[in-house]
Amino acid sequence: MTNSILIFPLLFLFAPIALTTCSLTLDNPSFPLTQAKDMIRDFNLFPERTVNVVEGGLRESFGDKKLVEKKFMFPGFVDTSGAASVDELGHHAGYYQIEHSHDAKMFYFFFESRGRKTDPVVIWLTGGPGCSSELALFYENGPFKIEKNSSLSWNEYGWDQASNLLFVDQPTGTGFSYTSDKRDIRHDEQGISDDLYDFLQAFFKEHPEYAKNDFFITGESYAGHYIPAFAARVNQGNKAKEGIHINLKGFAIGNGLTDPLVQYKAYTDYALDMGIITESDHKNINKRVPVCETAIKLCGTDGTTACMAAYLACNTIFSSIKSIAGNINHYDIRKQCEGSLCYDFSNMEDLLSKQSVKEALGVGDIDFVSCSPVVYQAMIMDWMRNLEAGIPHLLEDGIKLLVYAGEYDLICNWLGNSRWVHAMEWSGQKAFGATADVPFKVDGSEAGLFKTHGPLSFLKVHDAGHMVPMDQPKAALSMLKRWMKGSLSENAAELESIATSM
């Protein structure tokens, strides 16, 4: 939730504000771009291109086709597990031209389920804003794990074990997604959710065999903004019978930024609880909270300049904590950042920049943009908007929501997420609040605490930071399987498994 959420998930993420080098004034247009670049360096990512706006489009012409899709196999991949080949498993990569855009082409990976084709379709959105979903694909919940030499091996806890899995590079300009028209760079959730809706319409038109499957939206970090807006857009399209009906059953937000007004106020409490700051620090930093609150409220009504003011004012809360904490990894407070970097995801960038890989994926001359500072900056006015506001309507329509968070993440901490979930006004608010936390068990061991009432669930994941599927892959896969089937309880999952085998 601060100025560099990626997103990572995913990324997620937030980079701390350097108050000693950046002037907190509205007449400093380079400020958000500077913070975006800091965020990218936190992940040891150094994309050559800052955004994929390509004059004349892709040099390899695809004519008038709206779809460019091919089955692919990563060069050099060797399967030592005895599993089916990559080709047999139906791995796809390609582009869809976004219908209601000027010239946007959105890139994606699609991995058919290792179980059944009737398994749910799950889409994953990484945050940033402006970070590629390949971050999650290779380091969190995709079919592969990337090794230090940029080779690939199977991920036994990939979410394709239980779903037909989509990873999308969005917003346009991120990853391999591109446009020839700068007007396709989005500045708000309306534009982003409309593009994603058009993407899904194109996907299900090309793959009608999956259109009747249950559909779930998932993601991480700044996707706490994307996901509720996208879910609402799908629900709206279904009700209006705009196109192909999408069988939306639920949406899940991992360590996300959703309601800034609640979540920024939780920073100091979380930091105090975890021993990052002292009581005196807590009292002093909290003096900044009223200004942050006022600015966020003005952003919600006036927009534009007020939203920039909120971005600047509120992020001083986080940067103050960071200045006290020192070299702590704000994605996982158990760790120190390695040098000036918190993680090293450069192997992914190396892999996707290889010409042989680009040829296998069919991306032509497009460069891979791991995280785009241009997309990040374009979304600054969106940062402090409250995306919780549309969620109650979805819950009342019976669409499930799971909010989960690793307990050691500072940037989008579990406490702030828990507070906005509990504060959300809907018909089940009181009953949800009165529901007791119960252990989330995996193979008999406690992996977290959760509560559920009706369509709403909240899960605090033990021994995990910002990227839950990376830190606790087995628990994350169990979470997905159980939630999609209707209950996070291990006992319920066992009964389901028995019933399925009979």
From TrEMBL:
<keyword id="KW-0732">Signal</keyword>
<feature type="signal peptide">
    <location>
        <begin position="1"/>
        <end position="20"/>
    </location>
</feature>
<dbReference type="Pfam" id="PF00450">
    <property type="entry name" value="Peptidase_S10"/>
</dbReference>
<protein>
    <recommendedName>
        <fullName>Carboxypeptidase</fullName>
        <ecNumber>3.4.16.-</ecNumber>
    </recommendedName>
</protein>
<comment type="similarity">
    <text>Belongs to the peptidase S10 family.</text>
</comment>
<dbReference type="InterPro" id="IPR029058">
    <property type="entry name" value="AB_hydrolase_fold"/>
</dbReference>
<dbReference type="InterPro" id="IPR033124">
    <property type="entry name" value="Ser_caboxypep_his_AS"/>
</dbReference>
<dbReference type="GO" id="GO:0005576">
    <property type="term" value="C:extracellular region"/>
</dbReference>
<keyword id="KW-1015">Disulfide bond</keyword>
<keyword id="KW-0325">Glycoprotein</keyword>
<dbReference type="InterPro" id="IPR001563">
    <property type="entry name" value="Peptidase_S10"/>
</dbReference>
<comment type="function">
    <text>Probable carboxypeptidase.</text>
</comment>
<dbReference type="GO" id="GO:0004185">
    <property type="term" value="F:serine-type carboxypeptidase activity"/>
</dbReference>
<keyword id="KW-0964">Secreted</keyword>
<keyword id="KW-0645">Protease</keyword>
<keyword id="KW-0121">Carboxypeptidase</keyword>
<dbReference type="InterPro" id="IPR018202">
    <property type="entry name" value="Ser_caboxypep_ser_AS"/>
</dbReference>
<keyword id="KW-0378">Hydrolase</keyword>
<dbReference type="GO" id="GO:0005773">
    <property type="term" value="C:vacuole"/>
</dbReference>
<dbReference type="GO" id="GO:0006508">
    <property type="term" value="P:proteolysis"/>
</dbReference>
